[in-house]
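Assess this one:
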Amino acid sequence: MFSSFGSFFRIPSRFSQTLSIQPKILINNIHKGLGIVSPFEITLNQLKPNPGAHKPKKRVGRGPGGVGRTAGRGRKGQHARGGVPARFEGGQTPMVKRIPKRGFKNINHKDLQELNLEKIQLFIDSGRLDPTKKIDMKTMQDIGLVHKIKDGVKLLARGSEVFKAKIDIEATKASERAIQLIHSNQGTFTARYFNKLGLRVHLKPHKFLNLPKFALPGPRDIGFYTDPKRFGYLADPVETEALRKQQQEKQEQQQEEKQ
């Protein structure tokens, strides 16, 4: 490398020994003679942006002239004073009012995580879920049955042909078919209501120093969770148990007829 460097600059032979012994010092001296900062001598205090990379900020309203006297806004008027919103169209009916609106957003909608019975059976068969213990939404989240519970969990009946476990499960809602399958296997289902705070307390109790009381359902939901046919946790336990036995007997009769 240094032999080609020396031949390019035609360095005399008397400097060849110096070049071979101390090449960095010689290159630094050459750079100093040409007014160039050597790469071997760059330090933090020598770092600076390239010429023209930074432009000074335009200072308006200083001195005479258009940029100084009127700050580049011209004489008087709406644009010279306050800002004009981008949506303003000069007084005509704006676009947001001319376009018709379609649909609506239901403010009472609840985003429920769907959980199928086949997934519950899969977790039981793999040993990740103990069917002898009560399964609530906290248990579902802890073992990974559901993720990111926002408003609750709804049970669905997909996988009815493989679901054979006897479980005691609690969720926000469940389909009619899913409830029948759970009861046909001598299990129990309970519909449980949680508001936003109550669901957070149920899922993450370690984040509360003093656990608050769980709120009752509001006027829109109280009828659902007190209905024995929905198997709500506020329903009459005697009526709920009678309906559960009826479903079990009905399922047994259907199985006998198939055989």
Residues 237-258 form the longest helix (22 residues).
